[in-house]
Amino acid sequence: MRTNVVIYLFLLPVLVFSQVGIDTSDPQAQLDVVASNTDNPSIYDGILIPRITKFPTTSPTVQQNGMLVYLTKTVADHAPGFYFWNNESKKWENLGGSSLGAFYKPGTTSVPQTIQEPMYRQGNIGIGTQDITAKLQIALNSTADLGIKKGLEVDNNNPATDNLTTYAIISDNRSATNGTKYGIKNNVGGLGTGVHYGIFNEAYQNTGTNDIYGIFNRVGRTFGSWSNNYGIYSQIGTTQGSGNIYGIYSTALGDHNANVFAGYFAGRLGIGSTPEVEYIFPAAKGKPDQTLVLDNTKNMIWRYPGTFNYSTTGGATGDYVITDEVFSLRINDQISGLVIPAANTNKGRIITLIAWKGTKTKPFKFAGTDDLYDVVNDVSITSITGSQILTIQSAGNRWILVDIRKAP
What we know:
Blueprint: H1 2-11, E1 20-22, E2 31-33, E3 51-52, E4 68-71, E5 81-86, E6 91-94, E7 125-127, E8 136-138, E9 270-271, E10 279-280, E11 291-294, E12 300-303, E13 310-312, E14 318-321, E15 328-331, E16 335-339, E17 350-355, E18 362-365, E19 372-374, E20 379-380, E21 383-384, E22 388-394, E23 399-406
Parallel strand pairs: 1-2, 3-4, 7-8, 13-15, 14-16, 15-17, 16-18, 19-23
Antiparallel strand pairs: 4-5, 5-6, 9-10, 11-12, 17-22, 18-21, 19-20, 22-23
């Protein structure tokens, strides 16, 4: 019967203004094809659309707008599938809306069909933005996003209890640029009055004895490079800033039996606002009873308390100014006088003046109303001469003679 109906349709010499049914006497459309058995269909229950291995060399016209074909081979960027002629766009279009799909299954040109299948694409992706300058760019900038407070969230809740390393995020910047390279670059805007965090880390371990790190840096592993290397480089605040400003603020809590340090440095420690004024702590541990002092090169060293600075006027001429580092001073004959430090800014300081043999008398020059008072003889001492040793100490308002030794 089906064959007869088809032949009849092709041989009909006149227009038929009625519906045509195949395997049905009650067609519900211009052409209504019904399966021989809907519950147990045969291999012939269907319609074969024209199958082609390539599209026509000459494009169809408006008369063929909507014409349907089935492409059996991949042609250019068209994968096998159903296509229709869209005369408005003048091209063959996939019934699924895209010839090859927006995503592929890895290693194929097939479009993923289930929610569990992995997929990839070569193009960049923008979520919430059309200004795409990255492989994946996410923007929250419209009223539709008012309820979304996170640009990206990663939750690794893998329940496997093996010994393999897990990551929430892993980032490799292996670009060959000669410009600046970043592993992670954070910008936290100034709007809003709440607390602002550039990086906020929480690391826990419920059991075991393995180490826990809030931040672990490996820096300077560039063999052959002469660049400066910084584990942490912090720039904070401005001259106009108000409130407390800390370059590093560290609080360490722990059991009283444990070693607890707010700061621990396995290496030299330098302190100073610039290299010109910095001083460096010694790398080695001091011996019992030693104290930290600055040497003549402004470096900190361990020294026993009985060791004091020894200076000399050397070949200096004119009035010699006694500077802060002087404890014992050898006085040579080339100078014309000694400028004694101000008593009010040196209270408690002790200075020993040693006039070398043959040195002529050198007058003292004091600041303001200062003088050098000899308590024993109730007189002021105004100079020192050869073969004399004077030990003096500041009382805050004047200098006091503590000891005097001179040649008999």
